[in-house]
Records
---
Amino acid sequence: MDTDTRQPNTAGTGARPDAPAPAWARLAAPLAACWAAIYGAVRLYWAATGLPDFPPIGSDLVFFEGAGGVVLCGCAVLIAGVLSAPRLPRRATRVLILAGVPIAATLVAMCALLMLDIAGLLFGLGVSTALLPMGSRLGCLAVALLLTAALVAAHRRIRPVCAYCGRAPHAAEPEPGAVPRWAFAAAYLAAASFALRIAAEVAAVSGGAQGPLTAGAGGDLATLAAGSAFLAGAVMAGTVLPLAQVHRWGRVWPRWVLPLAGRAVPRWLVLGPGLVIGIGLVSYFGYAQVEMVAAAITGTGGFASFGGYGTAFFWTAVPAYLMWGAGLSVAAASYGIRTRPRCGHCGRGKRGMPESTGDHSE
């Protein structure tokens, strides 16, 4: 029988063949099973006794709050628990990976309201943040991340790749500056979608609406400062951030950024916000888009009169947010692949970010 082992396949990588897998790879599945069981027990209790009144909107998760959330946690426990077995047939591992990917993705989507928590914590803007629902969302996100780590570790165990970086022995390593066309297209889609979102806001505000991008206008100094900070952050996330994923100045500080000109931009300074904001936008506004479509089908009206905005605004702004997030996520994924540093275990890969040079172009 074809069985899995805990030793990473490092043939041709320069790594020691008897080297153990990294600690995170050994611990991810057991930790995922344990935490999913704990969080699932909490959700089972809430499903049996009734969900608490979660302020400010009465919900902690989206899509699956009650029994559905319990079932998903149970599936995560089962998958992670089986992946924790010391030896597992490769075919069974593949089946578990295929089953686990949509579960992990669904768990991430269920935490979509974390975008409101982040906005409330950073900018205020009248968005109240309650600890209990935010803690529940963070707990659900932890299940998703731990399960994802377990799936990645399992995938690397059954393939001839380095257990530390996932690189295959003879795979071509992309140059940091070799940006594929699809990544350029995704980055500029994100920027164009942000411009569409701003255009929708301008049109709505000219009609008397008051929304997040105009928050603070006419208020006190603190409210004005918070609104200005939010607007500045939105502009950065909609223009500079997606384009930094595909242009050289996202990897090397340009000449006008003194005294950093010519030095490497920290990889996670660009990649981290790109992934978090991109996935967050897709999760939150993907949920909003589903709600809008459901409301249109059932004739319940949905967002038609929210905050003085018309239906046309929401059918423009929400898809724009969704495309913004999707484009940013794809561009960030490309950036992450192209800038991966050399693996200290197998020695494969190039330096993801260039060293300081005398070249101050751009």
---
Amino acid sequence: MGRNGSENRRRTPLRPAGPSINVDRLNVNSLTGILFVQVLEGRGLKFPEKQKAITEEMYCVLEVDEQHRARTGVSTAEQRFRWRETFHIDVFSATVTSFFIYSWHPQFRHKLCHKGSLKLLEAFIIDQLNGDRMFALNLEPRGQLIVRIGFHDMREVFRRTVNPRMDGVFGVPLTRLLSREMRETPIALTRLIQEIERRGVDCNGLYVCMLIMKLVCGSVEKKRVLRDELEINPLECDLSADSVPDINDFLRELPEPLIPPQIYAMLIDAGGVTLPNDTHGNRQLVLRIIDCLALPNKNTLLLVMDHLATVLSSSPYNGLTVSRLTTVFAPLLLCCIETSCTKELKTLDVPQAASTLSLLLQIWPPRTEVRVIQTHPAVSRTPRMLYRNLSVD
């Protein structure tokens, strides 16, 4: 049988396909937004002969367009290889997701046992690119992986609604949150950044790969535990080795982007007049625009930008280039649904947002001193960065 026939056999929808839809009518060739992947269980999985005597455990690695993005914990045949782990993955121009199942052993090299792939556009074409579907994905050389995959596009992801919970932490306007907490930066965000930097920003795959073993970013189930604790008491929440700190959700769920559209538009204009050999002048121009932010936004942006600059300083070790880091964080800081978009400003355009954040990182002043960030309970009311004068007179 030909190659196309083989690919069709590897994807078996567990629900009726519904009416036929003309792919050409959809003006997309890739997906940008959030991919929801739930790895449920494996069926008919087998260990290689040489592995049977030394291990009974397997784990699943998820790739999007050949980049490692998530990894489950281990499961065994006795547990029927039921992982039941969910991942929310930010994707940009994604086309293919692949699943690789490895044997696991604490001392021996992990061996690839099974693999399978899924073309994302074909998976969601039935649902007009939003919604979710369950698949029995046929694996090579044998077996199946039961997965549920969903997708939300940029308009759905960045609706930025207000959390109705008055004492909440996520999805709360910054002014209200900081007034209640009597802090210059949000306690939850500050502590999460402190914890990530305490664990080390030289971790390979930081902010890109959801490796549970690294505990930088993990499955939805693990993140929800910490999130619930932060919502109750962000100052006393335990950030132990088992917790999964993640600042992305906090920034994404702000009712207004940290850099609002008005300031965003000014930064775009500034990017058009910066000079390649005038670092001082470029910094002066951009930082004066940042000074126009409301004080809660400005203080919080200083915290985040200092963190991103620290992450970039370890780029040789964590693999995060400016391009990769801005693709992850630019939508979180800049994107929203804005009805008054202009020809110059497109508030859901990821490349435009990434270019703007790249401009900020290029001119961003370094931290004035290298220091070990203290963790709870010393969450400073007056962090160092608040005293730094951004304007260059």
---
Amino acid sequence: GRGIWRVPSGLIILVVAYLGLASAPVLIGWAQGWPPRPLRDELSSGLAMTAFAILLIEFLLSGRFRAVSAPIGIDLTMRLHQLLGRLAVVFVFLHPVAYSLPLAQAPWDDTRASVLGLTPAATATGLVAWVVLMVLAWFAIVRDRLPYRYETWRLTHGIGAAVVAVASLHHTLEAGRYASAGLARAFWITATAAALLSLVWVYLVKPLAQAASPYRVARTERVAHAIWRVVIEPLAASAFRFRAGQFVWLKSGSWLKLADHPFSIASGPADLPRIEFVIKEAGDFTADLPRRLAAGTPVYLDGPFGNFTVDRRIGQAIVLMAGGVGIAPALSILRGLATDGETRPVTLIYANRIVEQIVAQDELDRLGERLDLRVHHVLSEPPAGWSGETGLIDAAMMRRLIRRELRAQPLCFVCGPVPMIDSVERDLSALGVPVSQVVSERFRYDAGANTPRERRIGAGLAALAAAHLALAVAFALR
């Protein structure tokens, strides 16, 4: 029924681990037995400890650690990074304004119950961390409107995060009533070291590994209007493996570049070691794609990533809905299903603006000989005499094209422009398909439309925020 929602076990493990790490400093401080200070001051300390722990966890939610993103998908991982970061910013913003005790030191009060006891150095590092974090958060929110290249933003974001971590560590150890000794001190030093090492991993270790496993572009060819097929091959034996429907981050030219770009793999796992992409001309990099990815160009991969896969999912029928270049992961899935001898009914609803944008039509016809596959082409600007579907994919069209599948608890995959994904997710929910049976993956991580998925993400964040706030209040009231 529509109320069914199977929570992935991986998500449960991640939430429990997150809550344990984010709550640990407050619980450790609670166990120290210090006499309580005024409510405002203790609440400020509880929020600050929680916020610093969240900020250190943020380093692992950057989307580049498969152990973290694999159970829930990289888009949800990045949404958590974004939303939890904003929650931490709110807590940090409140931290200095909530205190009521004087800043001065009182050597006779070794419990610091009557003063905050801030040294000039602790005040300075606290101010640096506070200001840099506010600036980082603002630039992250308005990044799409800034006249900076992605690699510039990524570098400054990483450097700024490191500054916040180091300055916060000094401030916490120097000024924190509950952090200066014992287990608490060990926790903060270890957690900060782990966060900084994650930057070393992303910005140094991974690029070195990419340099040791280079690829080159074997062929780049136009396959439809403003759409290119790019095939790459390894320059040496490659251990790269992926599941049909996944994607990689690709950089071209030099492994030292910070700029890399997410592209869904269009080939099937059986096509390895060659890897194929279907890429649309859009944005700074792909607008000049024939030159940037000309035959012979060295390329480097980070991946695979993504949960846009049939593996370990249950459904009596498979429905793929692709918009434009969203056909790439759908092709990968179809090729993988054909290789695996899939017997379930498969339906592809493939939407484009004009007929000249349709990719791999002949291959889709051939795949129909190996799969129980039905393909429906949809054009929003059809030519004269067009006999296929017209308009946009909506509930009425789905009810007409996949009526049989809707009765069979289908497994639905949606890939395309974000507005299309949002619209199709809403319509599938209205048609009775549970959220757990709808798989989508976005490469933009801002809040989407009012979809069942977004509502659950919002409810989850509200629950986490309430848990953090409840612990901080309980700590202050002890």
